């Protein structure tokens, strides 16, 4: 069994939730999202995040706007829609239940 594959699948399973959580406080562009994830030790690459952002936008959970940058080309800032905020709220509840259940199971002696 390949432990790295299992670890990658676990990270993928929570990536959508983490991206939505990053955007709950303020809009951000992709590099900011990636930096936040990397600072939290959730290692992901741009090639994983860009398609996920597009899918979340197409699902109506995110919107975006272009903003001029003083240090290069315009940046695409992503933000939560009202549907995205509701979806994140539901995911938070599910995460709490799941996390509690896993902690109970994994802490058993």
TrEMBL record:
<dbReference type="InterPro" id="IPR036390">
    <property type="entry name" value="WH_DNA-bd_sf"/>
</dbReference>
<protein>
    <submittedName>
        <fullName>PadR family transcriptional regulator</fullName>
    </submittedName>
</protein>
<dbReference type="InterPro" id="IPR005149">
    <property type="entry name" value="Tscrpt_reg_PadR_N"/>
</dbReference>
<feature type="domain" description="Transcription regulator PadR N-terminal">
    <location>
        <begin position="19"/>
        <end position="90"/>
    </location>
</feature>
<dbReference type="Pfam" id="PF03551">
    <property type="entry name" value="PadR"/>
</dbReference>
<dbReference type="InterPro" id="IPR036388">
    <property type="entry name" value="WH-like_DNA-bd_sf"/>
</dbReference>
<dbReference type="InterPro" id="IPR052509">
    <property type="entry name" value="Metal_resp_DNA-bind_regulator"/>
</dbReference>
